[in-house]
Amino acid sequence: MSSANAQDKKTVLLALTGASGMPYARRLLAFLLQQNITVWLLYSKAAQTVAMQECDWLLPAKPAEAEAVLTQEFGAQAEQLRVFGKEDWFAPPASGSNPPDAMVMCPASMGAVAAVAHGMADNLIERAADVCLKEKRPLLIVPREMPFSTLHLRNLLQLSECGATIIPPQPAFYHHPQGIEDMIDFVVARILDHLHITHDLLPKWGA
After folding, report:
1. How many Cβ atoms are within 10 Å of 100's Cβ, its own excluded?
2. If residue 46 lies in a helix (H) or strand (E), which one and from where to where?
3. Which of 17, 27, 52 is nearest to 184 (CA)?
4. pLDDT (mean) for 163-167
5. Residue 136 above 70 pLDDT?
6. pLDDT in tens, 71-130
């Protein structure tokens, strides 16, 4: 099977919580859809507010409306993008019988990190992360806070010990970024690397 065909069959759950860093999430969503990858999208009410404040990105409250708006915005194929409500307990990611291939929490607020680290599962975002951990599916956490308190670090360490991958959105400068877009792409490229999705957003070191 070619890498393109393998990527076609991949399902990535992208969860947006109420932390700064929505440009990373928007760029990641756009790239995944461009690569014909199925995306399940979840976002909190706080994420809607941050998305509008940071990049004038409208995330409709109703899942069906969100699917229509975002499918058109990113030129996705029919049924390639599915949006679920935070309380939709009958959605596929709520059960270990139908988990995504991988989940990315980007951006991940410290409140969401704490809830997942302690197995709260009070909404679909937290439950989906809990499912990925118990089913041994990749869970990527992109935490946004500065500085981290000791409590934040303990929660992130606990998630790492449980199998999650922690990817702080810290762009590097060795590739000589020419603007904000290049810095965003650096972080998105590292996320894609850990999803095992090929990309050309960043030159490979030594290539």
Report:
1. 23
2. helix 45-55
3. 27
4. 98
5. yes
6. 999 999 999 999 999 999 999 999 999 999 999 999 999 999 999 999 999 999 999 999
Question: CA–CA separation, 204 vs 153, rounded Å?
Answer: 30
Among 6, 51, 49, which Cα is nearest to 26's?
A: 51
- Give residue-wise pLDDT tens across range 36-77: 999 999 999 999 999 999 999 999 999 999 999 999 999 999
In DSSP notation, 167-190 reads ------STT---SHHHHHHHHHHH
- Which amino acid is located at 165 in the chain? T
Name residues whose C-beta falls within 8 Å of residue 179's C-beta, 6 or more positions apart in sequence: none
Closest CA to 123 of 7, 16, 4, 2: 16
